[in-house]
Design a protein that fits this description.
It is a single chain. This protein is of the alpha/beta class and 331 residues long. The chain has helices at residues 15-26, 60-67, 83-86, 90-95, 97-110, 151-169, 195-209, 229-240, 259-270, 294-300, 308-325; strands spanning 7-10, 32-36, 51-54, 72-75, 114-120, 173-178, 181-182, 213-217, 223-225, 227-228, 249-251, 256-258, 275-279. It folds into 2 domains: 7-181 and 227-251, NAD(P)-binding Rossmann-like Domain (Rossmann fold, 3-Layer(aba) Sandwich), CATH 3.40.50; 185-225 and 255-293 and 306-325, Alpha-Beta Complex (UDP-galactose 4-epimerase, domain 1), CATH 3.90.25. The chain is built from 11 helices and 13 strands. Helix 1 links the parallel strand 1 (7-10) and strand 2. The longest helix is centred in the middle third of the chain and has 19 residues, at 151-169. The protein starts with 6 loop residues before the first strand and ends in a 6-residue tail after the last helix.
Amino acid sequence: MSTQKKIVVCGAGGFIGGHLVADLLRQGHTNLRAVDIKPLDEWYQKFDQVENLVLDLGEKEACEKALEGSAHVYNLAADMGGMGFIENNRALCMLTVLINTHLLMAAKKFGIDRYFYASSACVYAAGKQRDPNVTALKEEDAYPAEAEDGYGWEKLFSERMCRHFSEDFGLLTRVARFHNVYGPHGTYDGGREKAPAAICRKVIKAKLSGEHNIEIWGDGHQTRSFMYIDDCVLGIQKIMHSSNVTMPINLGSNEMVTINQLVDIAEDIAGVKLKRNYNLKAPKGVNGRNSDNTLIKKLLNWEPSIALRDGLDKTYHWIYGEVTSNSKKKY
């Protein structure tokens, strides 16, 4: 698309949104609007050459202000976090439905050219994720519906909103189901962080404190795949600009590991070995989840490919720098 057309990134003050804005700037886009509910000084990445707006996108009027005059919209805005957050804040997660609903209404009103919605692998049926040796999840495995309570149901409903706005109003929508995105410039403490960042922080804390032990949520045998942020940002744009991705599609790595193996990698990067304490009462999510990339390879001739070891190395060192430079943290 022309670098002059206005692009709006909703949720731009968050982890993925900040990286997306940075990548669009690197490509030479000069007409960018970044929107987030957080105060500007709390954005993970902020760029002065971008029109930065602090708006509550749960409100209809705010969504209209955000989208007026734009051509392409990336909706990454959501009230969410890792399992520790979404299992204990189901109502807040469900209220995110207001964001996508009002953004779609504004997109229809202003005749937006293209609309991207960030969904999640949490839409997948729980019954297909009970075994750590899970069969990789295909797009059709979201039905019959048995999504993650709260967060997953909101995502599944919002996917269908996008579908029906396309069918009924001709709005061109694209939907990607993210599988565990990680990388620098993201949440690594406070309760909303996801497993890779949490593990890195815990390993760093153990290394700096000299107390060589680590708490792991669950038994460590639960399996996941983790997608590095650079793959995610590239995939978002490939999906957005595709002509043939007309249904929700997986966007995730298919490199499945156990949580114990994730800790192994972080320990290796840090050069330490820790005693593991398993908290079986902590939120741990489903027992197994992995991305089947058959469809994305077929339609885009591409799939996420950055190795977990390489991505986690960059993430670990970024978090290490944040922790050691923050005088408020006494490790």
